[in-house]
Write a structure and sequence with these properties.
Layout (H helix, E strand, L loop, with lengths): L7 H10 L9 H19 L30 H6 L4 E2 L2 E2 L7
Antiparallel strand pairs: 1-2
Helix pairs in contact: 1-2
C-alpha cells in the first residue's frame, strides 16, 4: 500500500483547484481527513476483485414497476391552437442555423 501524507501546501492547492476557502486553522484537520480517505482508497484497491461479477444492485431483488396506464388526456390540439404556426401536428419555428 502507498502511504500518502498531505501537507499544508497540498491542502492549499487542492482548495484552490476545488474553489474552496479553507481557513488556515482548518488545514491540519482537512489534511488528516484527506490522508485517511486516500488510505481507505488504497486499502480498497488492494482487494482482488477479479472473480467478482459486476452487479447493478447489492441485493438480489427486482424493481417493482407500476402499471403503464395513461393518466392524462391528449390535449395537443388545444396547445397547438396557441402556436403561431403548425403544420401536420408539428410546431413550426424560424430557422436558426444556415
Amino acid at each position: 500500500m502507498n502511504s500518502v501524507t498531505l501537507d499544508a501546501n497540498h491542502i492549499r492547492r487542492l482548495g484552490e483547484l476545488a474553489r474552496l476557502a479553507i481557513e488556515p486553522d482548518e488545514i491540519a484537520d482537512v489534511a488528516t481527513k484527506l490522508t485517511d480517505i486516500v488510505a481507505l482508497v488504497d486499502q480498497l484497491q488492494a482487494v482482488d476483485t477479479a472473480a467478482v461479477k459486476p452487479m447493478a444492485h447489492p441485493l438480489d431483488r427486482t424493481q417493482p414497476l407500476r402499471e403503464d396506464l395513461v393518466t392524462e388526456q391528449d390535449e395537443h390540439a388545444v396547445y397547438q391552437q396557441n402556436a403561431p404556426l403548425v403544420e401536420r401536428d408539428l410546431y413550426l419555428v424560424p430557422k436558426v442555423i444556415d
